[in-house]
Write a structure and sequence with these properties.
The structure holds 2 protein chains of 2 kinds. Chain A is mainly alpha-helical. Helix content of chain A is 59%, strand content 1%. In chain A, helix 1 packs antiparallel against helix 14 and helix 3 packs across helix 9 (267-294). The radius of gyration of chain A is 23 Å and the shape is globular. Chain B is α/β, with parallel strands linked by helices. In chain B, strands 4-3-6-1-2-5 form a 6-stranded antiparallel β-sheet. In chain B, strands 12, 13, 14, 15, 16 and 17 form a 6-stranded mixed β-sheet that branches. In chain B, strands 9-8-7-10-11 form a 5-stranded parallel β-sheet, sandwiched between helices. Classes of the chains: A mainly alpha, B alpha/beta. At the A-B interface, helix 1, helix 2, helix 4 and helix 8 of A face helix 2, helix 3, strand 4 and helix 9 of B.
Chain lengths: 429, 363
């Protein structure tokens, strides 16, 4: 929303930090703490929901108890592969006198960045390998090869997105504040450009992730303090500087000093170009995988009121219904960081991703047992579905309540704000 | 440091490998080629007594030596998990030896020490170390008289001191007093027999449970022992290492004589974990902020907040890993699964872990 509209930020109550010693605050119904969440009632009863939650807890525990040398060896193998692709790629793009070598180098560099961001970075930062007690794969310590600083990405992704998955107005990853990807999202005029904007974001994805993590919209909306925002901006600038220095300054300079005198003066330009393309390859790939994780048709979204006071079973169910898998070969799963098993990842974000395949068998059994929907399909099918949705939802809807800046929507938002303020007052009184 | 190492460790190199470190590339070429991470290969593991063993290690170039009395963090990887314990160096610091040893008494619940003692750590395997640390060391200007007192496995750091002093041909007097349950329970017995004959060394070994028939000294440490050997605590700087009981007695004795300044002590702390403890017992220590709190039975995150700390947190339901923190020792119980984790130095999510008995975390 923040890119093109919202000239005037709406005044919103800042979240209170003094009584944060509660369950995640926004998921507690302030007006009625005893009201039960309605998520999943169309599929099962509250008793069944509890049973469903316990069954998934048992699956998670079974995997956790089974973690061992094989999982450690696996992630080290992937890391070794990343190092090999990285070093080979860097060396090959220096062979400016023979273009096939440069092309291969670009491919290797792109591959190494994909492996590092997806199967290593994303998964390590979820804490999937914390049990190994190896500082090099420790979630809290890891920093990835991406312009987005790990700390802010982890907040937006691990916490906000994985806790409030697909809750409209809470999960900032629904459309990334840029796109209308769900019918229940309000429509703004900028959404006419849903498709071309998505194409642009695809090429610049790492920069989009970085911008998303700075949370300018939260700051402008009055939900984030100036100190917090400044700190985020500074972290982002520092990380950008380091990444740009490495890929776009230091390696070209080395080419200028070490290669150019013996080959051609434009050797540094080739190295620079190779690094740019490698980063774009990674951007395109990660964009495709991530947009197919929650946006294909059939992935459900939820209203905040319905998700409030949800039980563990309901939380699990929301994750399952809100995510979509991509089918494919084994190398495809590795390159996607096993996010092709998005459903399993959302159910169990902290178990090593290589286990999602075996876990999916248990999940499918439960899906069958409770008559749920398991959203999966080939990459091409899921992508087509996402593109179609982006195109359709970019059109102005007829219902005025679906148009963000219509008088009707504004009145609705005002009423909601006032109700919340009243509830807050009641609680503090 | 060689030119190559200096280049690889230089800031520009870190810029080129950012956000990784050069070590993270080098270790995949060869596990021992790291610049900053201290690693060592196990040369051999020798049993010392029925329950203690000595491990000889060849460290990589990142190791910068040790002073006798210091300890190292010692990490072994078992089933994919690195288990870390702190052990004292037991070998001599004299000479040009590229290796050193740690000597370890197997603790019944000690995963790492049992692993060593049962000969599961094979020669040639890699262990993950820290640099040598600790203030329990001899001063650079050695005093004329040195007293070394130890009890049980507390002998390891003072053994390193004794070996170094005798190897260096120390000219002063060394009084070595060691308390063990019996000769069978004593580490380094034959070497101690030999060192006892060195000039300047007065060796006193007291077996508390099975004393020798002609032993002049019996029982646990008392001032009378020092008097009989002829040590005046006021004139002889003393280093003591061993169980808490021994150290407390020695400390009181020295304090009564007004000789506390002459005493340096090191506890041999074996974290005791009582898995059956009721949830709300023991003390929760926040090491980084030096705060201790009575365990209230709430999650560690809640207890930290109750103690006035502001740890990072996110979902508060064990999903997002924002609050992940090192648990230094003690046992914790998962609020959902009920599973208990009792390893030293492991990462936990404090929002879903309740302390069981005494626990210390890095908060």
């Amino acid at each position: 929303m923040s890119l093109f509209n919202r000239k005037k930020p709406a005044p919103i109550e800042p979240l209170s930090a003094s009584n944060h010693n509660l369950a995640p605050e926004p998921l507690v119904a302030l007006d009625d703490p005893d009201r039960k969440s309605t998520i999943g009632l169309e599929y099962m009863t509250y008793e069944q929901l509890d049973e469903f939650g316990a069954e998934l807890d048992a699956v998670r525990q079974r995997v956790l108890d089974d973690l061992g040398q094989e999982d450690a060896d696996y992630i080290r193998r992937v890391i070794r592969l990343h190092r090999a692709f990285d070093v080979l790629g860097r060396v090959l793009v220096f062979c400016v006198f023979w273009w096939p070598a440069v092309a291969l180098g670009v491919a290797f560099l792109g591959l190494s960045k994909i492996l590092e961001n997806m199967e290593i970075g994303h998964n390590v930062m979820h804490g999937q390998y914390d049990w190994m007690n190896d500082p090099l794969v420790e979630g809290a310590r890891y920093e990835w090869d991406n312009v987005a600083p790990a700390e802010d990405w982890k907040h937006g992704h691990n916490y906000i997105h994985h806790t409030y998955t697909n809750v409209i107005g809470m999960d900032r990853d629904i459309g990334y504040n840029m796109f209308r990807i769900d019918e229940d999202q309000p429509w703004y005029p900028s959404h006419r450009f849903n498709l071309p904007l998505a194409f642009l974001l695809m090429l610049l994805f790492e920069w989009g992730v970085m911008y998303h993590g700075v949370e300018l919209d939260e700051y402008l909306g009055g939900r984030m303090s100036k100190e917090e925002f400044t700190a985020r901006r500074k972290r982002a600038m520092r990380k950008v500087a380091r990444q740009v220095l490495k890929d776009y300054v230091l390696f070209p300079v080395i080419a200028l000093v070490a290669i150019a005198p013996f080959t051609t003066w434009w050797a540094p330009v080739i190295v620079l170009g190779a690094n740019v393309i490698a980063n774009i390859i990674r951007n395109i790939w990660t964009f495709l995988i991530i947009f197919c994780g929650h946006f294909p048709a059939g992935a459900e979204t939820f209203r905040e009121e319905d998700a409030q006071n949800e039980s563990r079973g309901q939380w699990y169910l929301r994750q399952l219904l809100g995510s979509a898998n991509i089918s494919g070969s084994k190398p495809f799963h590795v390159l996607s960081g096993n996010l092709s098993h998005q459903i399993e990842h959302h159910l169990f974000p902290d178990i090593p991703a290589r286990r999602y395949r075996e876990v999916s068998e248990d999940v499918k059994l439960l899906v069958e047992k409770y008559g749920l929907r398991y959203n999966t399909g080939r990459l091409s099918k899921q992508l087509a579905s996402v593109a179609k949705k982006l195109a359709l939802l970019g059109k102005k809807p007829d219902d005025p309540y679906l148009i963000g800046n219509s008088p009707e929507s504004k009145a609705l938002r005002r009423a909601k704000r006032e109700a919340r303020a009243e509830a807050n007052e009641l609680i503090s009184a | 440091m060689g030119l190559l190492r200096r280049t690889l460790a230089s800031p520009p190199m870190h810029r080129l490998t950012s956000p990784r470190t050069p070590d993270e590339y080098l270790e995949y070429l060869h596990p021992m080629w790291t610049l900053e991470a201290v690693r060592a290969r196990v040369i051999d593991v020798t049993p010392e007594t029925g329950s203690a063993s000595t491990v000889r290690l060849r460290p990589n170039k990142a190791w910068s030596g040790f002073m006798p009395g210091q300890h190292v963090e010692f990490g072994v990887e078992v089933d994919g998990t690195r288990r870390v314990r702190v052990f004292s160096v037991s070998s001599s610091a004299a000479g040009n030896d590229k290796t050193f040893t740690v000597s370890v008494k197997a603790h019944p619940d000690g995963f790492v020490s049992q692993h060593l003692h049962q000969q599961l750590l094979k020669p040639g395997s890699v262990v993950y170390l820290s640099k040598a640390k600790g203030d329990f060391v001899l001063p650079s200007a050695l005093p004329e008289r040195i007293t070394l007192i130890s009890g049980g496995s507390g002998i390891t750091p003072v053994m390193s001191m004794l070996r170094t002093l005798t190897d260096d041909g120390h000219q002063g007097t060394i009084n070595f007093i060691h308390y063990a349950r019996s000769r069978a329970d004593e580490m380094f017995s034959s070497e101690l027999d030999e060192l006892a004959t060195k000039p300047g060394v007065t060796m006193t070994r007291i077996y508390t449970r099975e004393p020798a028939l002609d032993a002049p000294l019996r029982g646990r440490f008392a001032l009378a022992h020092l008097e009989l050997i002829g040590i005046d605590p006021r004139t002889s700087p003393t280093w003591v290492c061993g169980p808490a009981g021994l150290i407390a007695t020695v400390r009181d004795t020295f304090a009564e004589l007004g000789a506390s300044d002459n005493l340096t002590a090191e506890y041999f702390k074996v974290p005791s974990v009582d898995l059956d403890a009721a949830d709300a017992t023991g003390t929760l220590s926040f090491e980084a902020s030096s705060i201790e709190a009575e365990n209230s039975g709430a999650t560690i995150l809640e207890q930290a907040e109750a103690a006035g700390l502001k740890p990072a947190f996110g979902c508060r339901m064990g999903v997002c890993n924002t609050c992940a923190v090192k648990k230094l020792n003690g046992a914790v119980r998962h609020v959902i699964s009920g599973e208990i984790c009792a390893n030293t130095d492991e990462t936990i999510k404090p929002c879903v872990q309740i302390p069981v008995g005494n626990v210390s975390v890095e908060l």
